[in-house]
Amino acid sequence: MDEGVDPTHMCQSLVNKVVQSKQLKAVADPGILALFEAWLDELEEEVTGHLKKHPEAGPLEIATKLGLSKSGAAFLVAKLEREAKI
């Protein structure tokens, strides 16, 4: 899989900035932020669903099955683990 632009990495950066900066939250378009959050929720549900069926799956398998980059899949797995969702 080509590791060019990683939208999940870009989203990770955005999430970190939103969480860390009240100023960014104040200027973010609420509609775009809501769409981003909905998209991230869908990705998390796909990863969670895949891991329920294949608990031994690593980031590479998740990336391949869901059409993500390996680093994007690793980010989502780490985020879900941090939030105790998996």
Explain what this protein looks like in three dimensions.
The chain is an all-alpha fold and 86 residues long. The chain has one domain. 76% of the residues lie in helices and 0% in strands. It has five helices and no strands. The chain has helices at 7-20, 22-27, 30-53, 59-66, 70-82. α1 packs parallel to α5 and α3 crosses α5 (70-82). The chain is globular, with a radius of gyration of 14 Å. 10% of the residues are buried. The model has no long low-confidence stretch (mean pLDDT 83).
Brief account:
The chain is mostly helical.
SSE blueprint:
Layout lengths: L6 H14 L1 H6 L2 H24 L5 H8 L3 H13 L4
Helix pairs in contact: 1-5, 3-5, 4-5
Alpha carbon gyration radius: 14 Å
Which range best describes the helical content: under 10%, 10-25%, 25-40%, 40-55%, 55-70% or over 70%?
over 70%
Provide the β-strand percentage band. Answer: under 5%
Number of structural domains:
1
Instruction: Please tally the β strands and state the result.
Output: 0
The main pleated sheet reads as: none
Query: pLDDT below 50 for ≥5 consecutive residues: which ranges?
Result: none
SSE order: HHHHH
Mean pLDDT: 83
Structural class: mainly alpha
SS summary, helix count: 5
Global outline: globular
Spatial gap, N to C terminus = 25 Å
